[in-house]
Structure formats: structure tokens, C-alpha cells
Design goal:
The chain is an alpha/beta fold. The chain contains 13 helices and 14 strands. It has a 9-stranded mixed β-sheet, with helices on both faces. Strand 7 and strand 8 form a beta hairpin.
Length: 361
């Protein structure tokens, strides 16, 4: 085993969960999106709180009161694809000489204290998790367990807060000294996302392994409704990505293609070395051109059937699916990092092993 360092930046926030929200209710219907990017709510998608205010013509505090029926949150937790995935990977690999370092920002408020208290109980190094003016980023997660044929669905209302000021200049040189660099859901940290190609290029030119995991890009959806999203600031970013982790809808929106073969062809043509596409409770797909993982044709892998079996036998255990995709990404990355620490050479990493750890996570 060789000592290995992973730098991670991107979305970290407080997830505030509201369970048993009825997406067919009058309050939800009044805020429902009518066209792409208009700031209204849509199951499975994310909007910014200030855009929802503009859409509804009312302040978000009163809107949330109606959407939730005035109930207290069901749960509050640490959230954000970057930090949650990094924590999962750091926990899986905690017995190995592997260090995960998170770079990001909170505000100076009680939510920041809550977020930091959770991270402090994990192996993730948060020495570079700085404090900036403004509120700590947060997402209200509205969950309807009846949606999606009883598998549940959510909608997300995000407040970016202090991360509006988290610019690339706040990433110190140590960020790029790592062996592996992971950009997670930078669409929720706009200053990073709008400079993604140069950040990826700097890391790539230094010989690092670049990972990108995505999130619903509401800012670009709002700017150009119905048009393909850029990967950060443009298509150049793709050629510097060694591993892209994306869900089905994000793949459709990034590529402008609405089927598996179409968006996979887009990612291959754009220069991505390897990618994995999740699809909720359905099979996920992975592919590699052989530069990092061994060459692998587009292959379907199953999610864990044990989940459905367990829930069928114990329906009372059914909970919210928030964070499943983040943990999936963490498991995939954990396998990659472990293989790197064990001395795997580029072109020989095992994508099936990574898929197994992702599915288990």
C-alpha cells in the first residue's frame, strides 16, 4: 500500500428533510414548474430558493410553511454530493494509508456548527473547510414516499449562501498536490463551476486523476431552458475527466440526447475516459476507453436486489432515498482509490470492482 491523498471540493451543505409531502397537494401544485428553468418545483429536480420566490411571487419562508404544512423537519443531516461521497469513501478506506481532504466553505451560523460537528466524527480532513460571510448552504428536501411507483421521489430547494463567494482563488496549491482530485456537484458552487475547465486542466497537466460527479444544474437550466448544459464553463472540461459519475437525467441534460446510446456516445466523443450513469432503482451502466480503468464496453450492472427484498419483508423500514446517489459515488471512488493505493497502473483499474462497491454503498 502506498500513501494516497484525495482532494475533494464542491457541494457541502445541511440537508433538511421533510417526509410525507404530497406532490399532488394544492400547495405543491401552485408551485409546480410549467416550463424548464422557470423556478418552479418538479419531482426529482432542484431549484434555488430565490428562483422559487421569483416564480411564486412570494417569500420562501411563507412558501415553505405551506408546502410542509408548517411541520418541523423530519430530520436534519449533513448533505451535498461532494462531502457525503467523500465521507463514505473515507470511512470505507479508514484502515488504509489514505487521506481525504475537503475544501469548501460554510457561513458563520448555527448551521455551520451543526455541519462541522458531523464531519468531525468522520475520517474526513476538514482543515480547509473555511468560514465566509453569509448563510451556510442548505437544501430543503421534500419527499413523497408514494411517488415513483412507491419507491419515493424528492424535490430539492437549495440555498447557496456563502458558497457564492467560494472562488477558485480560495483553493490553495495543496488542493492540487493530491494524487486524486474530485470535483463534486460544483453546479451548487457557481464560482467553481464557471471555472471548471481550467481547474481540471491544472490537475490533469500535473498528472493527477480527475473525478467529476454531477448534480442537477439549475443555474444553466434557468439560463437556457431546454438547452444542453455546459460541463462547467464549456465542452473543454470533458477531455480532462478520468471518471464521470452522473445520473440519467443529468446525462440527458448535459448531452441533449434522450437515450442511453445517445448520451453515452456524446460522453465518449467529448473525451471522457470513463463514466458511470445511474438510473434510480434500475440498472446502472459503466464504460471505459482503457486509459484509467481497463477497456470496458458499455455494461449494465444491477442495483442490490436485497434492498427490494428487505423492504418487501419489512415495509416499516422504508425511508427517504436522499443521499443514495452520493453514497453510490463514494463507493465507486473508494474502489478506485484503493486500487491506486495498491499500485494499480493506469489502464488496469477494475471497473466491475468499483461498480460492486458503488452498488453496495
Amino acid at each position: 500500500m502506498k500513501k494516497t491523498t484525495v482532494s475533494v471540493t464542491g457541494c457541502s451543505l445541511a440537508d433538511i428533510l421533510y417526509a410525507d409531502i404530497d406532490f399532488n397537494s394544492q400547495a405543491f401544485s401552485a408551485c409546480a414548474s410549467r416550463r424548464d428553468g422557470d423556478g418552479g418545483l418538479a419531482p426529482g429536480r432542484l431549484v434555488f430558493a430565490d428562483a422559487l420566490e421569483a416564480f411564486a411571487g412570494r417569500d420562501y419562508t411563507s412558501l415553505k410553511q405551506e408546502l410542509t404544512g408548517g411541520r418541523a423537519p423530519h430530520a436534519e443531516n449533513l448533505g451535498g454530493p461532494a462531502v457525503v461521497g467523500a465521507i463514505n469513501a473515507s470511512q470505507i478506506l479508514s484502515a488504509l494509508p489514505v487521506s481525504f481532504r475537503f475544501y469548501g466553505a460554510t457561513g458563520n451560523d448555527a448551521t455551520a456548527n451543526f455541519v462541522r460537528s458531523i464531519i468531525a466524527r468522520t475520517p474526513l480532513n476538514a482543515d480547509n473547510y473555511i468560514t465566509l460571510p453569509g448563510s451556510t448552504p442548505s437544501t430543503d428536501v421534500l419527499s413523497d414516499p408514494r411517488a415513483h411507483s412507491g419507491k419515493g421521489e424528492r424535490t430539492f430547494i437549495n440555498t447557496i449562501g456563502a458558497c457564492y463567494a467560494y472562488t477558485p482563488e480560495r483553493l490553495p496549491d495543496t488542493f492540487f498536490d493530491a494524487d486524486i482530485v474530485w470535483f463534486g456537484a460544483t453546479a451548487l458552487v457557481p464560482p467553481l463551476h464557471e471555472n471548471l475547465s481550467r481547474l481540471l486542466k491544472r490537475s490533469h497537466d500535473a498528472g493527477k486523476i480527475n473525478i467529476v460527479s454531477t448534480v442537477f444544474d439549475f443555474l444553466n437550466e434557468m439560463r437556457n431552458p431546454g438547452k444542453p448544459w455546459p460541463m462547467g464553463d464549456g465542452p473543454e472540461s470533458y477531455r480532462y475527466i478520468d471518471l464521470l459519475i452522473v445520473d440519467w437525467e443529468e446525462a440527458v441534460r448535459l448531452s441533449g440526447k434522450d437515450d442511453l446510446e445517445g448520451f453515452c456516445a456524446f460522453f465518449r466523443g467529448a473525451g471522457v475516459s470513463s463514466f458511470v450513469v445511474t438510473h434510480g432503482a434500475r440498472d446502472f451502466h459503466a464504460w471505459s476507453d482503457g486509459r484509467l480503468f481497463a477497456e470496458t464496453p458499455l455494461t449494465a450492472y444491477p442495483v442490490s436486489a436485497l434492498v427490494d427484498e428487505d423492504l418487501a419483508a419489512n415495509p416499516s423500514l422504508r425511508g427517504d432515498t436522499t443521499g443514495c446517489g452520493d453514497n453510490f459515488a463514494g463507493g465507486f471512488v473508494a474502489s478506485l482509490v484503493r486500487q491506486y493505493a495498491q499500485g494499480a497502473e493506469k489502464g488496469s483499474f477494475d471497473i466491475a470492482d468499483a461498480a460492486a462497491w458503488a452498488a453496495a454503498s
